[in-house]
Amino acid sequence: LKLGVMASGNGSNFEAVAEAIAQQQLNAQIQVLIYNNPGAKAAARAEKCGVPAVLLNHRDFNSREELDQKIVETLQQYQVEWVIMAGWMRVVTQVLVDAFPDRIINIHPSLLPSFKGINAVEQALNTGVKITGCTVHLVSVEVDSGKILLQAAVPILPDDTLETLHTRIQIQEHKILPQAIAICQRSHFLGTGEEVASQC
Ligand code: GRF
Questions:
Q1: For residue range 15-28, what is the model confidence (pLDDT) as tens digits?
Q2: Binding positions for (6R)-10-formyltetrahydrofolate (predicted)?
Q3: Whole-angstrom distance between the N-terminal and C-terminal Cα of the chain?
Q4: Is 199 part of any domain?
Q5: Residues near ligand 1 with C-beta < 6 Å?
Q6: C-alpha 126: how far from its chain's center?
Q7: Would you say 112 and 139 are in contact if contact means Cβ atoms under 8 Å apart?
Q8: What is the count of structural domains for the chain?
Q9: Where is the binding site for (6R)-10-formyltetrahydrofolate, in residues?
Q10: Which of 37, 54, 116, 187 sits between 20 and 30 A of 195, alpha carbons compared?
């Protein structure tokens, strides 16, 4: 399966997917990393893995649609079949969604539908819930609302900070993102709409 990954910052989820491929847990290739912030650590990780990294800086485009059009062209140029949004911090438009219908997945640091949008980890911490987690879902134009593929639950401990909680969530993200891609791959090749059991 030919993957394109989109990331805005750190890129630890990009690396988790690359690592799953290297460990042969996932039969796929990352064709390209698209990133939007110059100097993003994700780009350095891509270089380390030998994956081409393309900077598409949203500040250089007049609209979200123009950026997404360039993203689509780049993904097509690299023959991408499935798109993985791994910490892509831009709202996507119909332009991208229509080019890869039901072929874009996102990882979000909460148990959706709770805590959509940015600051999901902080929202969970401030709300006082005792369990949060992460979700891999299909992308639609409505933010953090597409079909849920896989989730993992993570406890919130009494003395958690934003950092300690996010670190605990990311350990699970790095497991369920490659697993969800494998599930998508099976349904892609078998043409089944396979339903997915929850992780925990
Ligand atoms: C992750 O927590 C993901 O859920 C959110 O952005 C973060 C990206 O982390 N969408 P990284 O850049 O992969 O380390």
A1: 999 999 999 999 99
A2: 64, 106
A3: 27
A4: no
A5: 7, 9-13, 86-87, 107-109, 134, 170, 173
A6: 24
A7: no
A8: 1
A9: 64, 106
A10: 116
